[in-house]
Write a structure and sequence with these properties.
3% strand; 75% helix; two-stranded antiparallel ribbon; mainly alpha; globular; ABC transporter involved in vitamin B12 uptake, BtuC; two-stranded antiparallel sheet; 4 strands; 14 helices
């Protein structure tokens, strides 16, 4: 159930919504689903690797915001391309800091990333004074608003990033070290795996993914703001990971399952809108699904022991 329950749930919901709502099964709606959830999907992919390595990253929402703020502030001075690149690098630097705190500093990942999320969020507010940072350069919005046919650039970035991360995780030595570090840290260390380095690299990748998602948002809106929907991003990303079957205790998971988890949540929200269901119930449904997914994970681990 943990490995392939998401496939059955995804198919069942897709068929149900296709029958219940005629607009759901249209190319326009399906492409919009991809575009609207590209940011969450990119963050979820990066965070999946951290989960598998036995870590946890609560700072991705704050990094997502600060990357956009930095890009918006830098654009008038260095140009659109350099500003967006700088936003991604800020995300990478934040991830490296998280990695050092959790490995060299030996601080619990939950506490360390909660602390950095608080500091980064406060820094974003301090830098902007709570105001919106608008960018007037038309080229700044090309990445966020451009498209290749019906496929928008954010969707395309999500797909490419997902493929790269999936190959790294499932087809390289580093990927095997990630699974080993999360599955049994001591056994991995005795086998010659530098667990600290592997986990630090995973946090760096997670920060990179949050920075990438952040610049896609600011490029779409041409506005950097400290008061972004960072909490919702964290909740949706973690929910997609857990629902997809990645273990919260590390050592098990897959990128493709996370993608299905993110899209399942996206379809729930989309279905609520199309069927005119009270949107307040979305959080109830999401919370119930998360509880069930975590329960299945715990049950599966007890059964295997």
């Amino acid at each position: 159930m943990r490995g392939y329950g998401i496939v059955l749930a995804f198919i069942a919901l897709f068929v149900t919504l296709s029958v219940a709502s005629r607009p759901f099964l249209t190319w326009g709606n399906l492409f919009n689903l991809l575009d609207q959830n590209a940011g969450v999907g990119i963050v979820a992919v990066g965070s999946t690797i951290v989960f598998i390595a036995g870590g946890f990253d609560l700072s991705v929402g704050a990094v997502y915001v600060i990357a956009g703020v930095v890009a918006a502030l830098a654009a008038p001075h260095v140009g659109a391309g350099a500003a967006l690149t700088l936003g991604v690098l800020v995300g990478l630097a934040s991830g490296i800091v998280n990695g050092l705190l959790t490995t060299v500093g030996r601080i619990n990942a939950f506490v360390a990333t909660l602390a950095t999320a608080t500091m980064i969020g406060g820094l974003a507010v301090a830098v902007t004074n709570g105001a919106y940072i608008e960018v007037s350069d038309p080229s700044f919005t090309l990445l966020g608003r451009g498209s290749l046919g019906r496929l928008t650039y954010p969707s395309l970035v999500w797909i490419v990033f997902t493929v790269i991360c999936a190959v790294v995780l499932h087809r390289t030595r580093f990927g095997r070290y990630v699974f080993a570090s999360g599955g049994n840290q001591e056994a991995a260390r005795l086998s010659g795996v530098r667990v600290g380095v592997v986990r630090a690299a995973c946090f760096a990748l997670s920060g990179l993914s949050a920075g990438l998602a952040g610049i896609l948002l600011v490029s779409r809106t041409a506005t950097g703001q400290a008061a972004g929907a960072s909490f919702d991003l964290v909740v949706l990303a973690v929910a997609g990971i857990v629902i997809g079957g990645t273990s919260i205790l590390g050592g098990e998971g897959a990128i493709w399952r996370t993608i299905l988890g993110v899209l399942l949540l996206a379809m729930i929200g989309n279905g609520f809108d199309l069927l005119n269901v009270d949107p307040n119930y979305q959080d109830v449904v999401r919370g119930a699904i998360i509880a069930i997914a975590v329960g299945i994970d715990a049950w599966a681990r007890r059964s295997s022991n």
